[in-house]
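[job 4471] stage=fold_predict status=RUNNING
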Amino acid sequence: MTRAGIRTLAVDVAPDVQLWTEARGAADASPLLLIMGAQASGLAWPEEFVDALAARHRVIRYDHRDVGRSTWSYDERPYRITDLAEDALAVLDAHGVERAHIVGMSLGGMLAQLLLADHPDRFLSATLIGTCALSARPLVEADGTETAVAELPGIDPRVLEMWAQPVEDHGLEAELDRRVAHWRLLSGEELPFHADEMRERERRIIEHAGRYDVSTAHGRADHSGMDRTEELARNTVPTLVTDASAEPVFPRPHARHIAQVIGNARTVAMPGMGHALPRECLRPLAEAVLEHAAAASAAPTGS
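[job 4471] inference complete, writing structure tokens
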């Protein structure tokens, strides 16, 4: 279906499993794939951000399995997290894309790392937002001090406490209240939190999905087999890592660690940003992604 330059396409990724996908921007523009985090719809990418990227790229976003309009299948057909990375390739294939820029947030950033490690020939650049490295290599400071991965800062206890609480059905408005409270925690404390905007974004996501219950599939899926230490060290795809100062899920110095253990990676500062995409960060984040993608496209092949 095509509407005002936006094309949606259902993509088969497994027997009886379809993903909702959307492409926006000029058909002949360089493709850019957006991969959201666990249990997050493709619509969690703010429209302003998608439009900014679509000014120069054909932007593709989608709903994971058990999210939004895609098939909710885990209870009947369990899958591994690594399968979700292969889903991203299926989305590119369905849209006729041979090579793309990729932007992944949270779990989406982990899936992007799997793709860089396993299918580097399919990607022109990568941007990783609010995630952690799929590497066992320690963080090394300038003085040679090493910090093991297990000793890097963990998730804010307030976030963990909220994640541990069961999600009960008390109606649509109560669910919107819960989601807004969740995003308030994830946003950190350095920028203003725009509760009304977040509530309307979540309302659109619920309307898009046609349901307001929340799947736990991604948390229950098999997370084994995700280490890509050696492959990521050999990476040559230009990779940008956002260093968000208010990040409560993968706090500093996770971004610096990622940039150390992934070849051809560097960080970009995102002052005030947490584990969310607030209005104040959309323009600088879009500019960073666009500049990074442009530089990667202009670089000599193999650099």
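[job 4471] summary: The chain is about 35% helix and 20% strand.
[job 4471] exit 0
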